[in-house]
User: Fold Glutaredoxin from Futiania mangrovi.
Amino acid sequence: MSTITIYTTMMCPYCSRAKSLLKRKGASFTEIDVTFEPGIRREMAEKAGRTSVPQIWIGDRHVGGCDELFALDAAGELDPLLSGAA
Assistant:
């Protein structure tokens, strides 16, 4: 199983959707809440090239946000990525 990291904020509906999809897939993840952490949010933005949340990494691959995660699932590419086969 690949290591999953998801940067989130409180009350973010896209963060909730992304986490729900990962949970439905049986994937465990590390959540980093940047709501009150401007320094960590800056680090996330530097790594991702984006300031919006969620920002999701599966292994070393930056997946992007909620829409990109769902697009991977619709394309049949999320399950292999989660299993570490991609």
